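Supplementary Note 2. Why include the ligand at all?

Several targets in our set were suspected to adopt different conformations when bound, so apo predictions alone were not considered sufficient. For every target with a known small-molecule partner we therefore ran a joint prediction. The input for nicotinamide-adenine-dinucleotide is given below.
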Amino acid sequence: MQVSPLTRRRNQSRATPSWSLTGMDYGVSRPRSHVVAKVVVAAIMTAICMFILRQSSASDGHDLFSKREEGVMHVLVTGGAGFIGSHAVLRLLTDGHRVTIVDNLSRGNIGAVQVLQQLYSGPGRLQFVYADLGDSKAVHDLFAKNAIDAVMHFAAVAYVGESMAEPLRYYHNITSNTLTLLKAMVYHQVKTLIYSSTCATYGEPERMPITEDTPQVPINPYGKSKKMAEDMIRDYVRTSDMAAMILRYFNVIGSDPEGRLGEAPRPELRPHGRISGACFDAAMGAIPGLQVKGSDYDTKDGTCIRDYIHVTDLVDAHMKALEHAVPGKVGIYNVGTGRGVSVKEFVEACKIATGVNINVRYLDQRPGDYAEVFSDPSKIFRELNWTAKYTDLKESLSTAWRWREANPNGYRLLIAAI
Ligand SMILES: NC(=O)c1ccc[n+]([C@@H]2O[C@H](COP(=O)([O-])OP(=O)(O)OC[C@H]3O[C@@H](n4cnc5c(N)ncnc54)[C@H](O)[C@@H]3O)[C@@H](O)[C@H]2O)c1
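The joint prediction is reproduced in token form.
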């Protein structure tokens, strides 16, 4: 639980010179020493902030987290320092719930936790626990010391390409850690789980749109490890009164419409990055431009089609899932818009949102990329009354861009403010 983040960062693998995304690629021009220096400074700042955060949690109504309180739901959010997790924490706090974040900060941002603590600084609202879900003693301690009612399990490594290069890391981080978490929940009798799954568990379906009944035949360790975690949850729930909801997300984009949070992928993760981060990096000049792999697919404009779901809508689906979870049952839902958008359309929307004429090169197809992926979200509409609201791509990207422009280096660490 007390692993030094400094030690961990030094051991992290270095960026490779050529980076790729689904259907896209781009090159990098930054000197490595510059990036390493930035990472070291960020690590030191993170260590200081974590120390301060821990002090403030400990002295500020920590007791409240260990007791049940009538009318207050205490939700454990794993990976709450990450992109989606932090947005979920914001919504949980806004709705009056009590939140404990557990995160090892391997990927997320302590700055996002600080923003949330500033917004909801009252006693018993939000606490941050620095721990790795692979550390079963730390996970047991967490449940023993806190009166948790429900778990939203976001924490994961989540890049398809990285999973191909480091498969065991994915089976450990996703499958094995979910088992550790599940066993701790069972032992401490925590009976509600909302699980972050992915459309990658479907692999390359023959028919579109993808429904929840589409066969799951994942084709990479990321999708496979998520499917294994899903299977464990389903098998356990069959034998118990746990209430579980499995949400299979499509491509998540956007950021808090009020600009309090954003997507701040770390520079060292750019090699595995996602399309919105890459477009914004190109618009900021952090990378020279975008290389779209494949312009001769059998699609409306020749580029790949994907289903982009706004993070605020996704979080809303989690709240509906929490509300409708039933003991002894597993609900499985696709979370997407049901509308396919081409890479070319996405890039054009990004150019309008940023006002930058991003340099784009169209290359040959990349083996293994599939032409079209989009969801059928009718089950979640029918059963949970959820539907995507933020479907104007230009608007969603404009909001996300405003945050990114205001925070070109990601979250600022607010040491003086705490
Ligand atoms: N972003 C997407 O488009 C997308 C699509 C489908 C599914 N998902 C799923 O959503 C979840 C959240 O994704 P995200 O985009 O917010 O990723 P993210 O990297 O921004 O957040 C993940 C968080 O989990 C933490 N974490 C990772 N391993 C941990 C461990 N062993 N112990 C404690 N904390 C750990 C990281 O530090 C990070 O803060 C993941 O489970 C991912 O598979 C994401």
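Residues 79, 81-85, 103-108, 132-134, 154-158, 173, 177, 196, 198, 249, 251-252 surround nicotinamide-adenine-dinucleotide (CB under 6 Å). The two ends are 23 Å apart (CA to CA). Comparable summaries for the other entries are listed in the accompanying table.
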